[in-house]
Amino acid sequence: MGKQVDFEKIEKSAKTRETAAKAVTYTLLTVWAVVVLFPFYWMLLTSVKSYSAYNSEYIPKFFTLSPTFQNYVDAFTAVPLADYFVNTLIFTVITTAIMLFVTILAAFAFARLEFRGKDLAFTIFLSLMMIPSELVVITNFVTITNLDMRNTFMGLILPSVTSVFYIYLLKENFAQIPDELYYAAKVDGTSDFKYLWKVMIPICRPTIITITILKVIECWNSYVWPRLITDDQAYFLVSNGIQEIRENGFGRENIPAMMAAVVVISLPLIILFLVFRKKIMEGVARGGTKG
Amino acid sequence: MDNKNMKGWLYLLPAVLFLGVFMVYPLIDVFIYSFEEGYNSASQTYFGVGLYNYSYVLHDPYFLQAVKNTFILVIFTVPISTGIALLISVGLNSIKPLRELYQTIYFLPYVTNTLAVGLVFMILFKKTPYTEGLVNLILNWFGMTSVDFIDGPYWAKMFVLCFYTVWVVLPFKILVLTSALASVKQDYYNAAKVDGTSKFRMFTKITLPMISPMLFYLIITGFIGAFKAYSDAVAIFGTDLNAAEMNTIVGYVYDMLYGNSGGYPSYASAAAIILFAIVLTITCINLLVSKKHVHY
């Protein structure tokens, strides 16, 4: 009987230890969640504080009782935020569309067609994946300048199109489709292009959606190339716009209006993320890199 | 047969064109630029061929400052971010309720615009005549004196840059490590439990070896990414990084190319190639080390 009690005791102490471990884990996770979320909270909060209220707070307040949307009005009227938005939208849509076209055709050629020099070409493609963009940006800058394409959408888009990694990703996916389907289609007299369009693309839709979303994120956040190639505000993307706003817009002190602009710029991608959460996280785990 | 060959290349043509013009050609060209001395971008002429550009860059105090900053950034952010990511992933893996919520929150920085959120960080850390700034307020609570993190002492600025970099790179690392941890077979842990193995021993003898390939992948990509840091610094300190003493090697390359101090593609090329050489060396060292420690 005495032994029985001992077991109960051991079980009990094990349980308390487990609960304590859980508590520590949850606390740590919550602390980091707060660190991640706090900047977002702060930008939302600041964006609804009025200019005078913000500047009179020597010690910043953690909440506001009189939210205002004036800052959002200012963000769209005092600086051409709407133009930056439209530019980014045009840039993102066209770049992603051309990228998809180029990538799908190339992946199809590598996965399905037989032609001389294919293996060599694929090896060269793979080795190009290791080239850092910093190395090629210099010549691209000179090329685009010499072609007189500075401050044009062509100049912005053309060097941003290629993504060797996406070709590789899609080729791997295409290659998983059984050969029998292809031969069956051939017997029926289906052309290669029709086969690609009617069979391969629908089957590989998840991968195509993934690379589309990754490219959209990349385009929306791109900063370096647009900064090099545009100095005319009419062609600024949102990243350059925010930098411009910081250095020259609103007057340096109008931080609430700046934060309103930051909220407006961040929102589209956050919404996109919340809608396609699973797809984006899967896609990034498979192939995204940042940092 | 010939028709078949043609067709294959026809499908490949757009990709070859884009890559040829904007990747292969620039790659060759950047080496040529780096050896052309006294290149003039207006007339496209140069005096001679040699190593002068490299020696100029290596003697430029701005470049040395950029190298120093970049190395400090790498040395601090890579171990810290990998460590925190490992800690968080292990924590995430041990809980069930709320796990998805935490994962979603942790991933948010990945999808936000680096420049935009950098502005928020600047405001949190900045001290102006009107306000101490939030971070300083918190420091004051703990009885510490306030510091200007944005225009103040070097190490305060470096701290903000490191902190922001860790904040930005963590989502990717947490994501990769959580999926690596989830793929470790439960059987190993059960077997160890039967033997009465302690939790710590299970972690070092089962978990770490099982996820070591992913861990090293993260360390290698982390090194590469940190060496190429640039937009994070711009986001916090503005475009004139030399004045803020916070320039990075990539920033130096772009400054040489364009902007107020720009117009020197040769110097930019030399600096970019030096950076590439550094990254290549470190990556090779990493790969050698990983051969010894990674269990596939």
CATH topology of chain B: MetI-like fold
> What shape does the CA trace of chain A take?
flat
Order of helices and strands of chain B: HEEHHHHHHHHHHH
CATH top level class name of the largest domain in chain A:
Mainly Alpha
Envelope shape of chain B: globular
Total number of β-strand segments of chain B? Answer: 2
Q: How many H/I helices of chain B?
A: 12
Structural class of chain B: mainly alpha
Q: State the helicity of chain A in percent bands.
A: over 70%
Q: Give the strand line-up of the largest sheet of chain B.
A: 1-2
Number of strands of chain A: 0
Major β-sheet of chain A, in short?
A: none
Q: What is the CATH superfamily classification of chain B?
A: MetI-like
Write a brief caption for the model.
Chain A has 291 residues and is mainly α. Chain A has helices at 2-47, 51-56, 70-77, 81-112, 118-128, 133-146, 153-157, 164-175, 179-187, 192-203, 205-221, 224-229, 238-247, 255-275, 277-287. Chain B is mainly alpha-helical and 296 residues long.
Structure description:
The complex is a heterodimer of chains A (291) and B (296). By secondary structure, chain A is mainly alpha-helical. Chain A has two domains: 2-47; 79-287, MetI-like (MetI-like fold), CATH 1.10.3720.10. In chain A, 76% of the residues lie in helices and 0% in strands. In chain A, α13 runs antiparallel to α14. The radius of gyration of chain A is 26 Å and the shape is flat. The termini of chain A are far apart. In chain A, 38% of the residues are buried. The model of chain A has no long low-confidence stretch (mean pLDDT 87). Chain B is mostly helical and 296 residues long. Chain B has a single domain, classed as MetI-like (MetI-like fold), CATH 1.10.3720.10. Chain B is 73% helix and 1% strand. Chain B has twelve helices and two strands. Chain B has helices at 2-35, 52-59, 61-93, 99-107, 114-125, 134-141, 154-182, 186-194, 199-227, 231-237, 249-257, 265-293; strands at residues 36-37, 48-49. In chain B, strands 1-2 form a two-stranded antiparallel ribbon. In chain B, α5 (114-125) packs across α10. The longest helix of chain B is centred in the N-terminal third of the chain and has 34 residues, at 2-35. At the A-B interface, α1, α4, α5, α6 and α11 of A face α1, α3, α4, α5 and α7 of B.
